[in-house]
Design brief:
Blueprint: H1 2-28, H2 36-50, H3 53-58, H4 63-75, E1 82-85, E2 92-95, H5 111-122, H6 126-135
Helix pairs in contact: 1-2, 1-4, 5-6
């Protein structure tokens, strides 16, 4: 029976994690929806879930607290630093958007290394940083 309880807990955790990721992606603007009304409807449905009795059965994490933390994280999903290619050189560096001629970091041989540094300087993990760049149409 203990193995069965463990499997149920894994399923409960997966449900909560997926709902949290869906909510975060919606409030951060990473998930494309038909229109703004559709996005708000999906957010409202997830908010109801996080405040529901069913959610309380799945986890001990307070739903209002989780939504507050996800909203705070979503607010940080803006580009503060980007990367630029040094003219006449194969090197890349971190800079602020609109100030591509003002390097704020050492130079790297690959764009990926510069992107990692930009994400680090911004306090984001690389995955979230790249999602922000994609959402904002930055290659």
């Amino acid at each position: 029976m203990a193995g069965s309880d463990y499997n149920y807990q894994l399923l409960a955790n997966a449900i909560v994690e997926q709902a949290a990721d869906d909510y975060f992606c919606l409030v951060a603007g990473f998930t494309k929806t038909k229109n703004e009304a559709d996005r708000k409807d999906k957010i409202n449905a997830l908010q109801k879930f996080f405040l529901s009795d069913w959610y309380s059965l799945l986890t001990n994490v307070d739903g209002a607290y989780l939504m507050r933390k996800l909203n705070e994280k979503a607010e940080t999903m803006v580009i503060v630093y980007t990367v630029a290619h040094e003219k006449g050189s194969p090197l890349w560096y971190v800079c602020k958007p609109g100030e591509e001629n003002v390097p704020l970091s050492p130079r790297w041989k690959t764009k990926k290394r510069a992107l990692r540094k930009a994400a680090e300087m911004q306090g984001l993990d690389l995955r979230d940083y790249m999602r922000v760049r994609k959402r904002d149409g930055i290659d």
